[in-house]
Specification:
Distance between the termini of chain B: 29 Å
CATH class of chain B: Mainly Alpha
Largest interface: A-B, 43 and 32 residues
Order of helices and strands of chain B: HHHHHHHHHHHHHH
Helix content of chain B: over 70%
Oligomer: heterodimer
Number of domains of chain A: 1
Order of helices and strands of chain A: EEEHEEHEHHHEHEHEEHHEE
CATH topology of chain A: Rossmann fold
Helix content of chain A: 25-40%
């Protein structure tokens, strides 16, 4: 299903964090959300799955305004991978991934074969099927991130929201996770910091700055030297990669 | 491959474990009924219970019959209910507030109950109408409402609830001390002290008729929300993203723990350590998943409390220790052992 965000505003502590954002993501496409720290990326993701309620504006999944949807119905279709969510509980990888089935199960319904398959598929997608029994606190940061993504996949979402999913991952796993997400038949929005990874894996990009969209479109349209200087305050040199054909950003220090 | 999780043999093992724990609890209760200043053989105990429950007509002395049924059985069942309810409350609060130190008294309930109890006992509030237990129950509820209002006013959230609870507890404990030091005579002060440390003396069947249904209700409610509690593993936002109606779950479960704690504290006084330690022991045995943790906490809490009651009656001849002293004396080292066993490789 498509995600459409229409003139959404949200403030916290008297500060306008999301200030009139409008973005559309077509069904099955991947949008990269870029912008400096504090530009409103995480807040926007939380608004899309209604962990926070918009102050004004409309967020719709397909044709349905999320303001009128039950929390459970949202959770059955939208999965969120938060930044650095951790726990002190002695849970295993399997325990965590099984949490993804929560919205699909009643309070008393038993664990089903469908649940089992979703969990097993999710673990395979992130390459951790043989780690199912391992304890959470023994995992590296990157492994934890992959377990969170598996938990989100076990939710069998049609929309997937990821908040800096490649943080803590080594380059191999960054590439694996992003190509996995790009290939999934779901509509995804990924908050990212790495401009080159965003250009490689996203169908479209939106650049946030002070809670507003300052540029949106294909990576070719959005990633310009002028924009990077204006938003991120660094000087860049951009060329089309001779290897993969996408935009490639190099930074200048002089 | 992921191991299939719905396997027949695991249900078999679970059933065996449940049967075993109930057998242990039953045995512990019969021990509690048999042991005491007048020692009664297990056979006589069984006969006395059977006479009352099934209308059998075994020949027994009326004293034995009376001691077993009117005094010791009600007391043992109350200990079991209180242990189960306090342990359940601890397990729920530790999950909901994501704090391993959370326990039933963190919400200020026990402190409020104490104030209510001394207000009745020493100041004579509602004299003749309010019993000590009713006074304690009212105090507990008032404290819970105040702490909840303070927590909500401070913006809600797990840490705010704990801080508000600390503030509430300090306030009500100070009120209790104020009343005791300014108004109580030596005799009353000793009685209050005993009550504050928890006491099962004087428990009768009407107390059981209150405590047992409350414990069962608390168990049923918390089991209904076991999966919601699991979803809190990674915090409130993660739970909400999994479709949990967090406000409703919080209100219902905090209400259930408040009710359980208030009911138990109003009958037996504040018995420390059970709510804190038993859930950790249960987690060590059955893991963190609440579908298993809640029943395990309840049954271990019940067994532990009945055993603590036995110890409190026999450890010093001719004298009954406050049960709270026993739970802490045995609970603290047991807790240390669990911590040590469960230590993480650094």
């Amino acid at each position: 299903m498509s995600i459409s965000i229409n003139d959404v505003r949200w403030s916290a502590g008297g500060l306008m964090i999301v200030n009139g954002i409008s973005i559309d993501v077509a069904a099955g496409k991947t949008l990269g959300l870029l912008g400096p720290n504090g530009s409103g990326k995480s807040s926007l993701l939380k608004l899309i799955c209604r962990l926070r309620n918009v102050k004004s504006g409309i967020i719709a999944l397909g044709n349905a305004d999320i303001a009128g949807m039950a929390r459970l119905d949202i959770a059955r279709r939208v999965a969120l991978v938060e930044q650095q969510a951790t726990t002190e509980a002695q849970v295993t990888v399997l325990d965590v991934v099984r949490l993804g089935r929560t919205p699909h199960r009643g309070p008393l319904s038993p664990w089903s074969a469908t649940d089992d398959k979703a969990v097993s598929d999710a673990l395979h997608h992130v390459g951790l099927p043989e780690r199912a029994g391992q304890f959470w606190h023994t995992l590296s940061g990157g492994e934890r991130q992959r377990v969170h993504i598996a938990r989100a996949l076990a939710q069998t979402p049609s929309e997937l929201l990821l908040d800096e999913p490649t943080n803590h991952l080594d380059i191999q796993h960054q590439l694996e996770i992003l190509s996995l997400v790009a290939k999934l038949p779901v509509t995804s929005i990924i908050a990212l910091h790495d401009l080159n990874l965003a250009a490689m894996f996203c169908d479209s990009l939106a650049i946030l700055h002070h809670g507003k969209v300052v540029a949106a479109g294909t990576p070719e349209e959005v990633l310009t030297e002028e924009l990077i200087a204006r938003v991120f305050g660094v000087r860049a040199y951009i060329e089309r990669s001779a290897h993969h054909g996408r935009q490639h950003v190099q930074y200048r220090l002089d | 491959m992921v191991q299939p999780v719905v396997a027949g043999e695991r249900w078999g093992a679970r059933l065996a474990l449940i049967t075993l724990s109930f057998a242990v609890l039953g045995f512990m209760i019969s021990l509690a009924v048999s042991i005491g200043e007048i020692s009664i053989p297990l056979g006589t105990t069984t006969k006395a219970v059977s006479n009352r429950l099934f209308g059998t007509a075994f020949e027994l002395s009326r004293i034995h019959q009376g001691i077993v049924w009117d005094y010791r059985l009600s007391r043992a069942l109350l200990a079991a209910s209180a242990g189960a309810a306090l342990a359940l409350s601890g397990a729920i609060l530790q999950a909901l507030l994501r704090n391993p130190l959370a326990e039933p008294y963190v919400l200020g309930i026990s402190a409020g109950a104490s104030t209510g109890a001394v207000a009745v006992m020493i100041l004579g509030f509602g004299y003749g109408v309010l019993t000590l237990s009713t006074g304690a129950f009212i105090g507990a509820v008032v404290a819970f409402i105040l702490v909840s209002a303070l927590a909500a006013g401070a913006g809600g959230g797990a840490d705010r609830i704990i801080l508000a609870g600390v503030a509430g507890s300090q306030l009500f404990n100070a009120l209790t001390s104020f009343i005791v030091t300014t108004s109580a005579n030596a005799e009353q002060a000793r009685g209050v002290m005993f009550w504050l440390l928890g006491s099962l003396s004087g428990v009768r069947w009407p107390d059981v008729y209150l405590a047992a249904p409350v414990a069962l209700l608390g168990f049923a409610v918390s089991m209904f929300y076991a999966r919601a509690l699991d979803a809190f593993t990674f915090g409130v936002d993660a739970a909400a993203a999994l479709g949990i109606a967090i406000n409703r779950v919080r209100v219902i479960l905090l209400g259930a723990t408040a009710l359980m704690t208030a009911a138990m504290v109003s009958i037996v006084g504040s018995i420390g350590f059970v709510g804190l330690v038993i859930p950790h022991a249960a987690r060590f045995l059955v893991g963190p998943s609440h579908g298993r943790l809640l029943p395990a906490s309840a049954i271990i809490g019940a067994i532990f409390m009945v055993a603590a009651d036995i110890v409190s009656r026999i450890i010093i001849p001719q004298q009954i220790l406050p049960i709270g002293v026993v739970t802490a004396l045995f609970g603290a080292p047991a807790f240390a052992l669990i911590l040590y066993k469960a230590r993480r490789p650094v």
